[in-house]
Amino acid sequence: MALKAVLFDFNGVIINDEPLHEKLIEQLLIEENLRPKPGEFREMCLGRSDRACLSALLESRGRVVSDRYLDDLIGRKAKAYVQQISALETLPTYLGLDDFIFNLRATPCKLAIVSGASLSEIELVLERCQLRQYFTTIVSSNDIAVSKPEPDGYLLVVERLNQAFPDLNLHPAECLAIEDTFAGIAAAKRAGIPVVGVANTYPFHMLQRCANWTVDYLSDLELDRVQHVFSKENIDSAS
Fold this sequence. Notes:
Layout: E1 5-8, H1 18-31, H2 40-44, H3 50-59, H4 67-86, H5 97-105, E2 110-114, H6 119-128, E3 137-139, H7 152-164, E4 175-179, H8 182-190, E5 195-198, H9 204-208, E6 213-215, H10 223-238
Helix pairs in contact: 1-4, 3-4, 4-6
């Protein structure tokens, strides 16, 4: 078995924008005459889509949540996100990201994104960072009705990569997911995909309990070592 694809989460792995998302969610609640509560964003929203996050926050306050109501809130938040990100001279991408992608480009691996963020947000950031051309496939909240920790996004990206590259014959076990939250790690594992937990959002020791590999920074991930593990598993299964 060879490593054929590396699948990136977006928020918390490519861009450090979780504080911005928390601020925008709190603004929405205030606009809806609701009071934000300390710690609830971290508890209910990290690693999940805006739809899942807002549904949980509103339902916990007894609000009736219709699809139309959610669509309006998500649209308002997306507009505010674009305004805030566009106003930044330099985007808060993570240290080591560029070097890691550069190293991946020297391998046959396909690069893709699996995220609960909207496609417009993902593409805006990737274009601003000049990274869009390196990701052959993007699965966003526009593509799936459910949020992580459900595995649907990861299963869909494998399907789409096989459609885009018919000779790839990609299986979940031949992918590597990069995640920063428990919901994301659970989603990848449920899809049968090994996971690297990068300690951008939670402490190293907490991610270490559930990820296959754990690193403090993407630059700490030894790609050769990971590829060797994939190759070794192939040898062991054949013997």
